[in-house]
Amino acid sequence: MAQSPRALIVGGGIGGLAAAVALHRRGWAVTVLERARSLEPVGAGISLAPNSLRALDVIGLGDEIRGLAAWQGDGGLRTPGGHWLSRGSAAVMAERFGGPLVLLHRATLIDSLAARLPEGVVRTASAAALVDPGGAGRPARVSTPAGELEAELVVGADGIRSAVRGTLFPGHPGPVYSGFTTWRTVIPLPGADFASHETWGRGRIWGTHPLDDGRVYAYAGARVPAGGRAADDERAELVRLFGDWHDPVPAVLAAARPEDVLRHDVHHIAEPLPAFHAGRVALLGDAAHAMPPTLGQGGNQAIEDAVVLAHHADPRDGRTVEGLAGYTAARKPRTTGISRKAVGVARLNMMRSRPGIMLRDAAITMVSKAGPALFLRSFDGIADWRPPRSPYASDETGVRVP
User: Fold this and answer.
1) What is d(CA 153, CA 28) in angstroms, rounded to the nearest whole number?
2) Residue of 268, 200, 20 lying closest to 120 (CA atoms)
3) Which helix (H) or strand (E) holds 359?
4) Structural domain that includes position 115
5) pLDDT digits over 310-368, tens only?
6) Would you say 169 and 283 are in contact if contact means Cβ atoms under 8 Å apart?
7) Which of 6, 126, 264, 369 is 20 to 30 Å apart from 161, CA to CA?
8) Structural domain includes residue 156
9) Is the confidence at residue 163, as pLDDT, over 70?
10) Cβ–Cβ contacts within 10 Å for residue 239, how many?
């Protein structure tokens, strides 16, 4: 029996694992190379919109993840004093875009994706470097601690500081600071009873969302210089910045421990890459199009990338290089537009000018009264995306077959 073409995935995050599952189902012999010693994800919560849930349907995970949806009622946008600027609901969201918005811990999604892969596919403590991107007449080559590997396809899913991207496009300027930093935490909050919300202040934002398991996912952002750290601890810094905001913000801060709070400066790729591929190598997720989290689409777009890449990378026809050109054509315009929109939203919700904030809040209120909430409108053209039609049908096991 002929050996299946080989695909090496550099990076075992959400995008890398989603690509591994999608390519495995398509018929590739997949290996995931993750430099960390385990698949424990960096980060806290993630929101999955209907677009990425439909992508997860392609790899058999959509309904499982939809079952974790905790946001069932009202939600929306507030001011630091608690006034609602714009309100929406899970039901309206589902009706408008054909599905719910699911908030869950990143570890839950990582575990679900990894469980879809055969034993031994994921190699941890395996730092990888691209040696040769390959081409139509030769395989790509990757160096690892265990030696050099060859493959018909390499996927660079190694994040915002992607070494694979740097090898493919050494002249690209890479990511730039987005102008703000973020804090995130997932904590138990017994007796919590509040509507899912995001709050926009003066150069600061806060979000609080219930999860399916009884915990709360909270995040914050503030316009500060890059590279900063709190004088005491990051929880104390959040109390200083947000301690007098509306309920349940003080309760969340009181329940959090300093070690529960993660802080990261936000960067994005301002200058789009010339392509998302070169030779036999494809880039996906933050390695290809890192964007601010203001639309909550970073992980969603990585999942979309994964299933579109598998759609274009047919393991049977020997035309991987041509297939990757189709992947770039399908993904670059969409992700570039969403990234620019996320940058624009960051300018809006991180605004510092008091007169500008007054005009912004008044406009949001007026627009939301006249039609769907701003929160929902921001997803138009994003959450209604659908995966490409596969040229393959699915048998009863869900595996793609001719």
Assistant:
1) 9
2) 20
3) helix 354-370
4) 6-74+98-175+271-348
5) 999 999 888 899 999 999 999 999 999 999 999 999 999 999 999 999 999 999 898 88
6) no
7) 6
8) yes
9) yes
10) 17
